[in-house]
Each structure stands twice: as C-alpha cells, then as structure tokens.
Amino acid sequence: MTFLAAAAAGLFSSTLTFAQTPPPGAPFDASKHPNPIITFVEMKDFKDVASDQGRKASDIELLGLSQDQGRRESVEIAEGRFVKNMSILNIRTDVTFYPVVRQKFKLAGGGELVLFSFRFPTVSLPKDFTRIVLNEAAIERKKKPTEMRFGGAKPEMLDIRGARGLLFEDDGKLTVYWQEGGVGHTATSSLPRNELFEVIEDLL
Fold first, then answer.
1. Prediction pTM value
2. Could you give the CA distance from residue 144 to residue 36 in angstroms, rounded to a whole number?
3. How many Å apart are CA 29 and CA 1, to the nearest integer?
4. 60 φ, ψ (degrees, to nearest 5)
5. Pairing of strands 100-107, 70-78
6. Could you read off the pLDDT of 43-59 as tens digits, one per residue?
7. Are strands 156-160 and 163-170 parallel, antiparallel or unpaired?
C-alpha cells in the first residue's frame, strides 16, 4: 500500500465530521485573521476597490442584498499568493491562494454583515486526498490552540443555502461558512442566529 493510500485509509473516518472541506491555511489567530476559515490572508492585507474591480480581480460574481434588506458600504480585496512547500499534517505541498473579497453591509433592520468570498485554493495533491487531509487538519487536536487549524474553535454543522456549512461563535459574533458554485463564503454578524440565517438565505 502506498503512503498516500495508507494515509487516506487512516484518515477517512474523520472526513465525516465536517460537512464542508475547509481551505488550507495557517492556524487561526484572532489578532490577525478575519475568521477561523480565512487564515491565508490577514486583516491588514485588504484594500478598498470598486465593486466591479473586486469582481474582476477575484473572478467571483459577488453576492449582495436587496435594497430593502440593506446596503453595501464597502468592497475590499486581499491579493492571492503562492506558498511553496506548505505543511499540512506534516505533508508538504504547494498551495495557490486566490484573492479574497470583503464586503461590508449595513442592514435595514439595524446591525452589520461582513461577507468574505474566495475561490478554493489549489493544492498539489490528489483531489480526494486533499479533502481528507484538510478535514483531518481542521479537527486535529494539539496542546496549543495556536497550532490548530481553527485555533481551538469548535464549529457546529448546519444547513445553509441548500448546502452543508459550519458555524463558529465567539464573543457574541457568529460566523457561517459555506460553499456554492466553487466559491467559499463566510458571513459574520452580531445578529441573533435566526436573523443571520435569514439574511444569508436572502443573499442575491
């Protein structure tokens, strides 16, 4: 049995824990990263752009809200990058990260919504094996939270926009992660759960 096949067999049971494969990235650091999912760019990396520029640079058809739901206040983008020989569960692989778009919305009923969108990174591993390794990395438990992919955060699973997603809660803020059409999204807000879920479902 090859190394890849043996590793995949040993890790398979863990893949069932997550509904959505998380992207590769550094261990989550709340002082630097937008949220536990998006750790391949830092908050300082985002620059203001026009919405059409953000769409063109990211090759993403940006989600938005209807006028009666809220208004977009800003669009920002963090550039992608290529990381050579990145370690994921002690497996070394090259990773291409694509630009991340951040949109901030002021909601009509009060409150704010921050929406991040990104294309899933390209990893130099077989597709199925990549999924297994990334899922295992996300649930890996180490002595130090700073060494864990999610920084020790324990997400819940949920159904959102017709797909399975993950929900993180921290200090009154909720972050929901899901994928659709080959694009990953996270939505963060201090809204109550039901209200946040309704806003996400209404994204256009």
1. 0.89
2. 15
3. 37
4. -125, 135
5. antiparallel
6. 999 999 999 999 999 99
7. antiparallel
In the chain, the amino acid numbered 15 is T
Per-residue pLDDT tens over the stretch 172-204: 999 999 999 889 999 999 999 999 999 999 999
Q: Which distant-in-sequence residues (6+ apart) come within 8 Å of 84 by Cβ? A: 94
Strand order in the sheet with 70-78: 47-48, 70-78, 100-107, 112-119, 183-189, 173-180, 163-170, 156-160
**Which residue type occupies 202?**
D
How far does the chain reach from its first CA to its final CA, in angstroms? Answer: 47
CA 15 from chain centre, in angstroms, equals 17
Do the beta carbons of residue 192 and residue 52 sit within 8 Å? Answer: no
What are the backbone angles phi and psi of residue 19, rounded to the nearest 5°?
-80, -30
What is the Cα–Cα distance from 70 to 104, expressed in whole angstroms?
A: 10
| Orientation of helix 3-15 relative to helix 127-139, angle to 10° | 50
Q: Give residue 110's identity as a one-letter amino acid code.
A: G
The pair of three-digit structure tokens given for residue 43, joined into one six-digit string: 């908050």
